[in-house]
């Protein structure tokens, strides 16, 4: 029998902060992956690997207090929207009306998931 007491469960606010940070790492991973040209450029390759590792660690910390279905969906949604927006700004990728509509739907879905978790508490 262990003499250690169980650790208190993390606060939902902290989980959402970890989730936001993890989403930023996800966007960094995607953009650096474009810049590394198939892992043929050293610094973008190192940034890709570092962002991927940090993103997984912070996502796992977020999922200590955020439901996995909600957390993963929000993480992927923020990653997708952030990558398209920054891909447009940094790489000159086209931003179409269909992409903007998809953003609105993704953001609306993420907000809906956040609200559903708030009401479930």
TrEMBL record:
InterPro entries xref list: EmrE-like, Small_drug/metabolite_transptr, Small_multidrug_res
Source organism of the structure: Streptomyces mashuensis
Acetylation listed as a keyword: no
UniProt protein name: Multidrug transporter
Pfam families for the chain: Multi_Drug_Res
Membrane-crossing residue ranges in chain numbering: 42-63, 70-91, 97-115
Name of the gene: sugE
Compartments where located: Cell membrane
Family according to the record: Belongs to the drug/metabolite transporter (DMT) superfamily. Small multidrug resistance (SMR) (TC 2.A.7.1) family.
